[in-house]
Amino acid sequence: TMNTATPTEFEFSFLEEGFSARDIDDRDAFYVCDLGDVVKKHLRWMRALPRVTPFYAVKCNDSRAIVMTLASLGSGFDCASKTEIQLVQSLGVDPSRIIYANPCKQVSQIKYASAHGIQMMTFDSEVELMKVARCLCGVLLSICRLLSFH
């Protein structure tokens, strides 16, 4: 749960109010995130659309702190790779809350997702649909941007 998480688990540092650029050591790139704002936006979503479960696209920001915060709130996750699936599942997220969504899936990663209990996948084309159908049975597929140009 969030109450037992420590900064070490999150892999981040706390910055005190009023910090300046001189207060930050010589690390590589960094970003500042207000996890309270992440929580507020999630709660706003749930109030506005209570019957719609959000699925956070991990590729947008795979920070453990953000993913762990959203996992504790019950969010779903849109994972586009084995690495993203591993991250989300390492935080105890049930496979029923994960969608494997990649517009051009590798067969090995389709099989990995299925072997790890993920039963929801998207497809963007007939080719992707056929690839998943050849690899797996019993997977729930979601239509995503299936367009036809004539």
From TrEMBL:
Secretion signal, residue range per the UniProt entry: none
Sorted alphabetically, the Gene Ontology BP terms of this entry are: putrescine biosynthetic process from arginine, via ornithine
Where does the Orn/DAP/Arg decarboxylase 2 N-terminal domain lie?
Answer: 35-135
Q: Give the InterPro entries listed for this entry.
A: De-COase2_N, De-COase2_pyr-phos_BS, Orn/DAP/Arg_de-COase, Orn_de-COase, PLP-binding_barrel
Sample GO molecular function, one term: ornithine decarboxylase activity
Keyword Transmembrane part of the UniProt annotation: no
Spell out the GO cellular component terms annotated for this protein, sorted alphabetically and separated by semicolons.
cytoplasm
Q: Name one Pfam family in it.
A: Orn_Arg_deC_N
Full protein name: Ornithine decarboxylase 1
